[in-house]
Design goal:
405 residues, MFS_trans_sf, 2 strands, 1% strand, mainly alpha, Putative MFS family arabinose efflux permease, Growth Hormone, Chain: A, 77% helix
Length: 405
């Protein structure tokens, strides 16, 4: 961990890196996560155009397959980059992951068919999956805050990137083509990568413990960490199941409940506005009362407000209910990541974050499947909200099983 003298566990940092403050580290990582947010959402923005691309003969089913393949790449990237980061250093892996996903994103602009495009999305996912675990490890090691504000602020970058993708899609695609969206997504790396290389400090521990540790992944399963590791995995799975399940199916479920299409889409926007507000609130609260207590409260509140969505409310009442659900649902996983970053020793921190993020991606894939199954069975409303509330309860229980350290 970087010390006041500018050294990382006894290893001198490059002179430029020593001058970077905790805010500078946070800004660089925030930019990287914003690019990740852009890249993970861009497929949804261009998919309507891909379905009409001459010669591709893409169907909604094959489009969904390409999306899933990209998420599988993200999962493998998160699982593999964590141990590499703890062994070779945060700085090197952050630069590598940004270069990897940016180059492959650019390559997507020149894909000639769905097979090549899907392969490129999978490979880009390997880099995308590694950005978040490394970034969370870096900002929490640079920050003096004991709560989750460093992590929640970082995740706002993801949402900013996602919003920019949607806005640019509206402005760019009608004028140019869908391919230009991938070029735009790759170009910022030309400025960001040199900044990362020059200013990002190395926070790889160089202690006797770090030298003796051959496999950072083994830390997750010994020394009293096994129970916590399994609990974090379950919690991350449930948290991302909620996020992706609701983002995918909320408008459809609200249509089943009798709301007009415009209102259903407005409720989805309201849900994501609540997500940003929730990140801001969760960071401040966790700094005051601790990240463990905050995670418990957030999962409990998410369960309550998800269940309340099954109650028909007039006028602004439903918007307020959805807003509050967004405040708590979207911040649960972020608080879990913050909890992980404070729970494990530095030598295994990125490995723990990557493993939880990778397992969580299985929840991201399962969320849309759960919603789709309920819709197919004609049980989306109100039982869909009860099912999501039950998922939040499981997350609540699992986070309480994390060992206190």
């Amino acid at each position: 961990m970087t010390t006041a003298s500018g050294q990382s566990g006894g290893r001198p940092e490059p002179r430029a890196a020593r001058r970077v403050s905790a805010r500078g580290v946070a800004a660089l990582c925030w930019a990287a996560v914003a690019l990740e947010g852009y890249d993970l959402v861009v497929l949804g923005v261009v998919l309507p155009e891909l379905l009409r691309e001459p010669g591709w003969q893409l169907t909604p089913a094959t489009g969904s397959l390409i999306s899933s393949v990209g998420l599988v790449g993200v999962m493998f990237g998160a699982l593999s980059v964590g141990p590499l980061t703890d062994r070779f250093g945060r700085r090197k892996l952050m630069i590598t992951t940004v270069v990897l996903f940016s180059a492959l994103t650019l390559a997507c602009a020149f894909a000639t068919g769905p097979l090549g495009f899907g392969i490129l999305r999978f490979l880009a996912g390997l880099g995308l999956g590694g950005v978040l675990p490394v970034a969370i490890a870096l900002v929490n090691e640079a920050s003096e805050a004991k709560g989750g504000s460093a992590t929640t602020t970082l995740m706002i970058g993801y949402h900013v990137g996602a919003v920019l993708t949607s806005l640019l899609g509206i402005l760019v695609i009608p004028v140019l083509t869908w391919r230009s969206m991938f070029v735009i997504g790759a170009l910022p790396a030309l400025a960001l990568v040199p900044l990362l290389a020059r200013h990002l400090p190395e926070s790889l521990p160089d202690s006797a413990e770090g030298k003796a540790e051959r496999s950072p992944a083994s830390i997750l399963f010994r020394g009293g960490y096994l129970r916590s590791t399994l609990a974090f995995w379950v919690t991350a799975f449930m948290g991302l199941l909620l996020v992706y399940g609701l983002n995918t199916w909320l408008p459809v479920i609200m249509r089943e409940a009798g709301y007009e299409l415009g209102a259903a889409l407005a409720l989805l926007l309201t849900l994501n506005v609540g997500a940003v507000l929730g990140l801001l609130a969760a960071g401040r609260v966790s700094d005051r009362i601790g990240v463990r207590t905050s995670a418990v409260i957030w999962f409990a509140a998410a369960a309550v407000f998800l269940a309340l969505l099954s109650v028909p409310l007039p006028g602004i009442g439903i918007y307020l209910s959805v807003l509050l659900a967004g405040v708590f649902v979207f911040s649960t996983t972020v608080l879990v990541y913050a909890y992980i970053s404070h729970h494990y020793p530095a030598i295994g921190r990125a490995t723990a974050l990557g493993a939880a993020s990778g397992v969580g991606r299985l929840g991201a894939i399962s969320g849309p499947l759960l919603g789709g199954a309920l819709l197919s069975a004609g049980m989306a409303y109100p039982w869909g909200f009860y099912a999501f509330a039950a998922v939040a309860v499981i997350g609540l229980v699992s986070v309480t099983f994390v060992s206190k350290r």
